[in-house]
Design brief:
This protein is low in regular secondary structure and about 90 residues long. The chain has a domain of about 55 residues. It is built from 2 helices and 2 strands, in the order βααβ. The chain has a two-stranded parallel sheet with strand order 1-2.
């Protein structure tokens, strides 16, 4: 799981949960229903959202960036990809 994800969405302030899906699910006690894990929550009412694919790290796969968008406002949470080949 990428360590460079923010703790909160910079656009809408939603708390971002990542990593093990079961650990994130246990945080429902703190945050209530979690976007990305529960269908019983409206995005505007959510306090937290889950991103990624559990413990699988796909942040370096350009076609998988959609896994790391805010579940509420769809802001890309990963840093920009450096396409400069002259590093």
């Amino acid at each position: 799981m990428p360590s460079n994800l923010p703790a909160k969405c910079p656009s809408c302030g939603l708390v971002i949960l990542k990593g093990n899906i079961f650990d994130a699910g246990e945080k429902e006690v703190i945050y209530g229903p979690i976007l990305g894990l529960s269908r019983d929550i409206r995005p505007e009412d959510a306090k937290a959202g889950f991103v990624g694919m559990g413990s699988l790290n796909m942040d370096d796969v350009p076609d998988a960036r959609f896994l790391y968008v805010c579940p509420r406002c769809k802001t890309d949470l990963l840093p920009p990809i450096n396409i400069n080949q002259n590093n």
